[in-house]
Amino acid sequence: MNSKKVRWLAAPYGLWMAGFIVIPLLMIFFYGLTDRNGAFTLSNLFSIAAPEHMKALILSLLLSAVSTVICLIVAYPLALILRSRNIGKGGLMVFIFILPMWMNFLLRTMAWQTLLERNGVINALLAALRLPPIAIINTPAAIVLGMVYNFLPFMILPVYNALAKIGDDVINAAKDLGADERQVLIRILMPLSVPGIVSGITMVFVPALTTFVISNLLGGSKILLIGNVIEQEFTRGSNWNLGAGLSMVLMVFILLSMALLGRYDKSGEGGAF
Amino acid sequence: MSLPLIELKNIEKSYDGNLILDDLNLSVKENSFVTLLGPSGCGKTTTLRIIGGFETPDKGSVLFNGQDITSMPANRRPLNTVFQKYALFTHMSIAENIAFGLRIRKKPQSYIDDKIRYALKLVNLEGFENRSVDSLSGGQQQRIAIARAIVNEPKLLLLDEPLGALDLKLRQDMQYELIRLKNELGITFIYVTHDQEEALTMSDTIVVMNKGYIQQMGTPEQIYNEPENAFVADFIGESNIVDGIMLRDELVEIFGAKFVCVDKGFGVNKPVDVVIRPEDIDLVKPEDGTLCGVVTHLIFKGVHYEMEVTTPDGFEWLVHSTDMFPVGQKVGIHVDPFDIQIMNKPESEDEEAAGVNE
Amino acid sequence: MKKTRFRKFLEDFYLVLTLLFLYAPIVVMMVLSFNGSKSRSQWGGFTFEWYRHMFESASIVEALYNTLLIAFLSALIATVLGTAAALGIGSMKKVTKSVYMGVNNIPMLNSDIVTGISLMLMFIAFGVSLGFKTILLAHISFNVPYVLLSVMPKLKQTSRSTYEAALDLGAEPVTAFFKVVFPDIMPGVLSGFLMAFTMSLDDFIITHFTRGAGINTLSTLIYSEVRRGIRPTMYALSTVIFVTVLTLLLIANFSPAKHPSRSDGGAGAALTRKAPGGNSFQRFVLIAAAFLVVAGVSGVTWQHLTASASDELYVYNWGEYIDESVIDRFTEETGIQVTYDLFETNEEMYPVIEAGAVRYDVVCPSDYMIQRMAENELLAEINFDNVPNIANIGPEYMEWSRAFDPDNLYSVPYTWGTVGIIYNTKRIEELGVPAPTKWADLWDERYAGEILMQDSVRDAFTVALKRLGYSLNSTDPAELREAADLLLAQKPLVQAYVVDQVRDKMLNGEAAVGVIYSGELLYLREEAEALGLDYELEYVVPEEGTNIWIDSWVIPYNARNKENAEKWINFLCRPDIAKKNFEYITYATPNFAARWILDEDQRRDPDVFPDLTQMTNSEVYRYLGTEAEDRYNELWKEIKAQ
């Protein structure tokens, strides 16, 4: 099996990608660059500048950036702890943190609604403890919480995998050369886990930027994100061309942020799984 | 006698209820090259890791220059380690790898630059500053690992099977290189290996370990020529270990034949282990030998022939000789008295591990 | 020593805290699955009712089956496709390689919504009818990148020499691959499979856009239930799934671990470290796979055996908009096999019918959408000779229908109702506000944070337009601007814009007032009584007038089984059937004969069956044309984005 023959093994997927990735994408481009009557136009793209779309985009960028940062802050120490404990039952521990993903995404988010509502579980607990109630349902804070909750596993996995790859010897070598715990973290663990961090950021930021379900369920639909705008153009407003045009703009934003991130992951080893 | 540089006192260590080190005592003089030698699982690496500060002993203490450093974390210990798989930092350039310890100590840049250049020259890798770790061969990585350790001017350098992953030629080159480095720098080396030849070539003191106990400690010559028990004899070099009976001082009986030796003080009619190195056996005419046998195996080894001589009792003697005797020839076996090494038989397995002759 | 113990405590604390965060919603779901009440925050006693219901419900069992089958098949195919591709890509030149990887990354970088929509657009453009196979294709497409991502790194680590050694020892290339290379990359392949399976299981958005007639996965089924509040049956189902997975996992992890862990010390620990959980994953996947293969094969055969019926009918209806036993009864009586499918909004239904991606035989849209469909010639005239039961429909509803179906040619009314204000008697008393009687009351500042508005353009504008005294079908830009400004001014007072959750939220006492469809009233009252609430929920049709809505059955132009569709409509117009449906969906029925056999107090309930002759200032929605719709949508987005 020489390498030329082996190359053909990728052919079926090549065809598949052409059929189910490239052509659909061209469909989006086609819709995005035409109006309802099929005439060429750029207005669908430029409509991102309309104040209501701009506001939604900026808010989406802001909320997903905040969620991504929180995910990273929560997941990194967790991954460090899991790494230090992974002798023996490490696989199981990691799995325990991924398991919630097997509960349906919509149900999980609905359950948060139940928890956070004014008369919800958390407030009932707080009342029992004679503490003042919290009122974050239907606010951006609730949306961020929903994003963090739903996408946290996507951060934990790649960061953990990147950290688990670092050998104990490397850490011992750094300690041996005089580095204390903090210096080991900053000079060794963090730089070596950059690929994992990059892919974690990608996997949290992208779905968070484009979500519409979370903002609907936890934001009380009072907060319009760019995902909601697009979804509504397709399912309610029925202006598919505008929806496709906005999707293209969103794609550009995602590609830009990925290109920016990609510079920190030169080796391209950010294998998430 | 000067104070030992490092001293291990009554060290005990176990993992999951398995005793790895039991009441280990060891002291290393300044400026020596000490090798911990033993089969895998003998506790040599654990000993090194305890000195390095990567493991805490369950009992006992570690003294450095007389000061107790048992609970001192690794990063504060005035010694450095070269790891088995080099453990270079792949996200840094070669220069940054070497500079790591100096940067932690906040040395000035000019000092660091000088040190990098000096260290690279020392390990014969001048001009490698900006190369990446991945672009280096195993031997080069090994040398960088050494350079990274020695720029910190440690009093003591710990080396954990540093040549284990290299091929034979490179290994031999590196052995000389390490000896040269040690002599140039005047640093004390503690070296861990399971390769007896490496140990014999490089060290001035060898510590043979087995099952968590020190079996014997001494110069390479002592270890080779006067093994204190069967384990050491078997582990170091090739040897014939046979059952014998010490008839009286300076006379031992092997397979019914009486051999004159130089050992005394074993008592009368006492069963003992007898060690005879293959090169110490002289093959003579059958009538001149103390024992008689037939050559059953012959291999040309370059500097000498390796033969097996089977005596009537069925024992196969390993013999190295520059003279050749063809297979099937009857020969006599003769050994000079000072080439016979007598050892007490261990009375139990535990005793065997602990090394009764100590 | 003390320091490290303290640190370990901190670490444990952190782990527990994170786990609490991750599992809190799941625990809530599990608790709710035993809740005697349908409410999400009222405890109605312990019950196994929902578990029983789950196993009895054909739609749930089928959705579960679809979900698992799609997840398994898509993960399996994606794994084969992806592993082969990884091998091929591994030996490619740099340029081709980066093209492959670049395209491969698109689904991962693109939002799900774009992926889903783009696939839908393509399927529709190429005339592929949406259904099981389109979901499967879509899932395979978004799964392969995960497989590639986990196989590629493993492949990089595998040395070529082992493969060559195998060739040297006389193995055929294929044998060499399966005996040497494959075991090496197996952990990557397995984790790729598992990841793909998980992603497929959890996907909603892509499935939502690519599914078609008569097919639901758990996600889409649940989403359709969000419309009327999720039934605890779903919680029960999730609990069962979760506990199953957890049990499998624990069995796989703990049972074989007993023996080797004791025999060896440091070396053993070092070995297990190399393969974190590899074994348990393997075992788990094998168990799961074996189970699924058996289920899959038997399921497919069963489907083939039963799908042989020649007489069929494709129904497209709102979620939770029929008593499921009615469908069975229809099949029983007529021998017609029903493929039943759901939609969420009129706007979502329209393009599906327009594109003809799925050829439905009978659909149940709302008033204005019927007008739009008729205007665009998407509807077939109903042959009323085949629908004699039309006589049971009250003539006034046929009259109101003329607003959107001027000659009563295309539609047969199914449900109708009004839009009004529901209020919590106790809560408004606490706030010191009189009970609302008109739309203008929804601008009363004393209601700040207590108002639930409808999250749909037309309904929201109805509130403002009617308050201003304009027609709710207004297309006058000035009037619409005025209404939009009014809604903007109201936004700070609004707690949330919701569609069907008004019901749940009002029951839970989350808000004082809400805009609601009259059809929800009966259910709300029953539920409030069952919960023994200390407040009442009252309904009022505002003085300024409101929207009268009618959902009617229509037959699309491209229906393949038009006569069966007419049989269906006729069947639903039968008084006993209409009564059964009314009791299930609780939306007012236009069927006079059916109303006659209802309980006295229900029949005369003025909130459920208001006297239409009195409601002169109320109107039915009409289709306003694209231009006006765009204007509504623009203004609505402006309000939402504020």
Account of the protein in words:
- With 273 residues, chain A is mainly α.
- Chain A has 14 helices and no strands.
- Chain A has one domain: MetI-like fold.
- Chain B is an alpha+beta fold.
- Helices cover 25% and strands 34% of the residues of chain B.
- Chain B contains nine helices and 20 strands.
- In chain B, strands 6-7-8-3-9-10 form a six-stranded mixed beta sheet, with helices on both faces. A five-stranded antiparallel beta sheet of chain B has the order 13-12-11-14-20. Chain B has a five-stranded antiparallel beta sheet with strand order 15-19-16-17-18, with no helix packed on it.
- By secondary structure, chain C is of the alpha/beta class.
- Chain C has three domains: 214 residues, Orthogonal Bundle (MetI-like fold), CATH 1.10.3720; 140 residues, Periplasmic binding protein-like II (D-Maltodextrin-Binding Protein, domain 2); 147 residues, D-Maltodextrin-Binding Protein, domain 2.
- Chain C has 28 helices and eleven strands.
- The radius of gyration of chain C is 29 Å and the shape is globular.
- Chains A and B meet through helix 9 and helix 10 of A and helix 2 and helix 4 of B.
The count of strands of chain C amounts to 11
Beta-strand content bin of chain A: under 5%
Radius of gyration of chain A: 22 Å
Distance between the termini of chain A: 28 Å
Query: What is the CATH class name of the largest domain in chain C?
Result: Mainly Alpha
CATH architecture assignment name of chain A: Orthogonal Bundle
Major sheet description of chain A: none
Order of helices and strands of chain A: HHHHHHHHHHHHHH
In DSSP terms (H or I, runs of 4 or more residues), the helix count of chain A works out at 14
Q: What is the total domain count of chain A?
A: 1
**What is the number of domains of chain C?**
3
The residue fraction in helices of chain C comes out at: 55-70%
Greatest interface by residues involved: A-C, 117 and 123 residues
Name the CATH superfamily assignment of chain A. Answer: MetI-like
What's the short story on this structure?
The complex is a heterotrimer of chains A (273), B (358) and C (642). Chain B has nine helices and 20 strands. Chain B has 358 residues and is of the alpha+beta class.
Draw up the topology in text.
The complex is a heterotrimer of chains A (273), B (358) and C (642).
Chain A: H1 3-7, H2 11-32, H3 43-46, H4 51-85, H5 90-98, H6 105-116, H7 121-128, H8 140-165, H9 168-176, H10 181-192, H11 194-210, H12 213-218, H13 226-235, H14 240-262
Chain B: E1 6-15, E2 18-28, E3 33-37, H1 44-52, E4 59-64, E5 67-68, E6 79-82, H2 94-104, H3 109-122, H4 138-150, E7 156-160, H5 168-185, E8 188-193, H6 196-202, E9 205-210, E10 213-218, H7 220-225, H8 230-235, E11 240-248, E12 251-254, E13 257-260, E14 270-276, E15 281-284, E16 291-300, E17 305-310, E18 316-321, E19 330-335, E20 341-344, H9 349-354
Parallel strand pairs in B: 3-8, 3-9, 6-7, 7-8
Antiparallel strand pairs in B: 1-2, 1-4, 4-5, 9-10, 11-12, 11-14, 12-13, 14-20, 15-19, 16-17, 16-19, 17-18
Helix pairs in contact in B: 2-3, 2-4, 3-4
Chain C: H1 2-32, H2 49-56, H3 58-90, H4 94-109, H5 112-125, H6 132-157, H7 160-168, H8 173-202, H9 205-210, H10 218-226, H11 232-254, H12 260-263, H13 266-274, H14 278-306, E1 312-318, H15 324-334, E2 337-343, H16 346-355, E3 362-363, H17 367-375, E4 379-380, H18 395-401, E5 412-424, H19 425-431, E6 451-454, H20 457-468, H21 477-490, E7 494-498, H22 502-507, E8 513-517, H23 521-531, E9 537-540, E10 548-553, E11 555-556, H24 562-572, H25 575-585, H26 592-596, H27 600-603, H28 625-641
Helix pairs in contact in C: 1-11, 2-11, 3-6, 3-8, 3-14, 4-6, 6-8, 7-8, 8-14, 11-14, 20-21, 21-28
